[in-house]
Amino acid sequence: MSDSRTVSAADVSRVVARIHTRSVRAGRLVVGDQRGLALFLGSLCYIALLTRVGIFITDTYTTANAFVALTEGHLSIERAVFGPSLDTPGMHVVDGQLYGRNYGQLVLSLPAYWLLEGASVVADLRIALVAVWSLALLWFSVVLGRILDYRRAFALSGCVLALVLFLANVAVATPVPEAIVPVLAMQLTSILSGALVAVFAYRLVGYLATPRVGVVAGVLVVLGTPIGFWAPIPKRHVFTTLCVLLALFAFAKSRDPETPRRDLVHGGAYAAVALLAWIHAPEALVLLVTLVVADFASSPAARYRSLPVVGGVFVLALVPFFLTNFLIAGNPFVPPRLLRSFDIADAGSSVVDPGGADGDPTADPGSGGSGAGGGSIVESLVGLLDAIVTAGTTFVRLLVGGVETATERTSDLYRTFVRSGYVVANSGASEEAINLSVLESAPVLGSAVAVPLAAVNRLRANFDPRRLRDPRPATALAVVVFTALFTLLYVERLPLHAQVTVRYLIPLYPVSVVGLVLLTPIERVCRKETWTVAWTVAGGVLIGGQVVAAFVLSQGLALGEAFQFHALVGLGLAGVLAVGATATPYTDRFDRVVAGAIGLATAGTVVFSLLVVTAYATGLGRYPVDGGQLLPILRVLADLLSAV
Amino acid sequence: MEETRLAVYGVTGFVVLVTLVSGPLVGAVDLTQEPRGCTAQIGSGTADVSVESLPDSATISKGQFGAETYYLEVPDGSVRATNVSGQPILSYTISIPELSRSAGPTLFLCTHQSARQQLSIQRLTIDESELDADSYDASLTLLLRGDGEEITVREQSITVEVQR
């Protein structure tokens, strides 16, 4: 009797141990190592700070309603749970049935929905979210202590911080409206992707350069670019960014003969393209072309033996995409974006408030309705051909248009990338000047001026095409090709309204950070002056943040004025950094100054993002669907600081 | 090292415990409360509203830092709402017929609030191309709606000056 009990206890502990090892192994597959884990947890906590629960752009009504339909077990949308009606931007119609788009993102959001539903049985959702956030913070500081070898100090201060913040949040907690849970699930998945973007920026750079530089790159991605701003907003941009980084990471690894299961990893890069296609097919085409070009340029002839494996993985990964298309359009090769739009007026979406529109530049109304075909193989093949031709011509047309824009409409280019100011809205309605340029959104990219200088330097030193076979030059090539193609894809339609931080180009921000580190001496700066960067970020946020907040609050600025003020600050910081960066290819004497400029530029983006969720929260949209700030203390802070 | 471990597990345990105890399964305590105690039907009841102050002029001026758009700026006013029952609606509007624009907040009055209510109008953006005069006539309106009837508390005209 007692014998069997001992056995069962041993069984339990063995099962627990196995689950533990399995989850550690799975975790390692995702975050890589302790640094990746720290970056993941830190990013998660930071992005959660910036999170407001709700719908912010009208085409999210479409995806949210499609998601609700999905949670009920069907693809077609039957009722408008969110929004005034089903006539919302991005709604597509086939045989009288309504469908949304970005289904990959929606399916990936399902686990979060089930988790929230499950959690709400045993816990008050708001308290559960606050608890998870506090524990993530505690875990973050324990891991940080392990890395920096100050275990005790970090663990104990983490305990105090987590406890105090948990209690403070609980003290002012309000319930999460039940109706918003599907949107919240989409947001949580997006936040998770945002944190993983930082992790994979770290892993990519850490693998190609050094782990230390990788950590700096990861931190710059999450703090110094609009990834933090957009991750809580349940749109596709952060998902597509993650797909791009996954592809680049797998591609980089596949260049190295030492990589275990190399062919599978190589296929993994193309699987990321397939996942992206499931979310947004035109962007996937850019990534596919990038990979194919980089593969051709960097693969020795012997690599073509891996083609069956790589192709097999790609086709397998495309199955969910084809299946979704088949279920919706009756043709596996016609993605929702190529279907006829439901919106009668074809007005495009708008930020809920202030007004503006999200006319998707990659949607192609010309090919509307091509998907209402039957199910026979012949028709499917015709559909495939049709889809390839449509996609190909649209793609080429967009690229040509992009080149034309780049050469002819330089003022638009300038407004998109350098100085925004007031852009007259396409919709004709007067809008606040809240759409920042790329450089204003991420001043840290000011260091990009070093790219051509460093390139000239390096090419003069040695140029050997065979070196492209190495992971680092091959990945750098992929980064350059992707940046060029992706810019050309969208630049024709930019500047657009309802962008805030040029959201269409979101994938370019982390990719550019990676590119800067790979291509310029910024790598040396990050390696030698890591702590200068770290301390200036901290100082810039804590001191500079207070100065900026005090100024904005005391001046009683309107939303557009406040945004343009941040834009000018960002531009100034970018300018300082740019001047410093021009020196880096020739001398390392100014590395500390450049590191300081990188830190301040990053701090500028952090301060802007933090003020958006607090001081400008009431100004930037009073949303019809709104559950307030995710963390209750930020809601209280927002009430105190409300500036516009 | 042991006490560090103890602290980490202790805090974790406490956080999990509070979460579970306050959850619907145990339901020992409800930690999330709606911040306001106004639960009456919106638009029901009535109130006595007296005007304390209303602005007698407003301006339209250009935004700073390259924001370019023009902003309508109306100084704050205030009212006192007493004898509130239910949750009547007080709407405060500025309208400029020549520009066909209007703006202003809608307040839901209720007994739990202080009697003095600030009336502030969020800055309205106006495109430069719309502005062809140096000043516009505008009107301020205070309407109280409750129990199906609408009372005009105050209606007055003001001048909006354009500062270029």
The largest sheet of chain B is: 8 strands, mixed
Give the domain tally of chain B: 2
Q: What is the helix fraction of residues of chain B, given as a range?
A: 10-25%
As a whole number of angstroms, the C-alpha radius of gyration of chain A is 24 Å
Just name the CATH architecture of the largest domain in chain B. Sandwich
The CATH C-level name of the largest domain in chain B is Mainly Beta
Q: Number of domains in the coordinates of chain A?
A: 1
Low-confidence segments of chain A: 343-374, 425-430
Strand order of the largest sheet of chain A: 1-4
Overall 3D form of chain B: flat
**Between the first and last Cα atoms of chain B, what is the distance in angstroms?**
68 Å
Total number of helical segments of chain A? 24
Low-confidence stretches of chain B: none
Using the CA coordinates, give the radius of gyration of chain B. 24 Å
Derived from helix and strand composition plus strand pairing, the structural class of chain A reads mainly alpha
Oligomer: heterodimer
Q: SSE order of chain A, as H and E?
A: HHEHEEHHHHHHHHHHHHHHHHHHHHEH
Mean pLDDT of chain B: 83
Transmembrane segments (chain B): 6-26
Keywords (chain B): Membrane, Transmembrane, Transmembrane helix
